[in-house]
Amino acid sequence: MSSNLHPMLNVAIKAARAAGAIINRAALDVESVRISQKQINDFVTEVDHAAEKIIIETLLTAYPGHGILAEESGQEYGAKHSDFVWVIDPLDGTTNFIHGFPVYCVSIALTVKGKVEQAVVYDPTRNDLFTATKGRGAFLNERRIRVSKRTQLKDCLISTGFPFRPGDNFKSYMNMMSDVMQRTAGLRRPGAAALDLAYVAAGFTDGFFETGLSVWDVAAGSLLVTEAGGLIGNFTGEADFMEQRECMAGNPRVYGQLVPILGKYSKFASAGDKASVRQAAAEDSPIESASTAEEELTNPDASASSGDAPF
Predict the structure, then answer these.
(1) Where is this region: Disordered (predicted)?
(2) Annotated binding site, which residues?
(3) I need a surface site. Which of 20, 31, 123, 269 has the fewest CB within 10 A?
């Protein structure tokens, strides 16, 4: 830890490294880790719980008057009405971890009156420590980082996350991915959103988008991105995204080019944009396309009115 860092950030780093040590020990024999399922394709392990426990103990020992919002225990610990709230994801990328796929991290952020002011994302497999304090820049292993300088989307590498929960709109996501893939140098799905955002901050990727994320997935990463000179928001480009379950980030030029591509898929998109997305999804479904074609053969007026169906 550095004496030049904010004291609260130093405590967060201590907590993240302690959690990382637990995760690394467990990774040596991942087959013996006990796993339970929160919902379909959404796993939690004894390692998540142990890492979260040591993080909370470390933070509350230093700051007993602070609040806690953690992925596994919610607001069970800490002060209930503090202006200072630690937002914790003890193991982002649990599915990767239980398969031995070495892409996962610890994410810790401090919000003050709802605004993120301290951030740590720690990758224990590489011993990579991403940190940021509001107004002081973003760092990787104490080296200043900046978002990439690429200006043309065709040269850019974009990261994302795939939908995996029951009820997720898979057709819409496939169309979204198709729209992005055709315009970029490549699309990647590492599987840990906090690390994805850290990679945008470091310039390893040029942009990121995903739906269905919770505040503990994005809180720390959001400060890393902005302190590294990037932008982060929802798909329409609005900055108030933290609890809207859609997230887009990138360097300023890339961010500006992603908004018109992804904006129509936002829950905040206009009715016209939503209708066009619905129509595209229907056209990509062989069953729906076949039934539409059959209807047009038997009822020539159907195609003229079908676009006016309610969303």
Answers:
(1) 279-311
(2) 71, 89, 91-92, 217
(3) 31
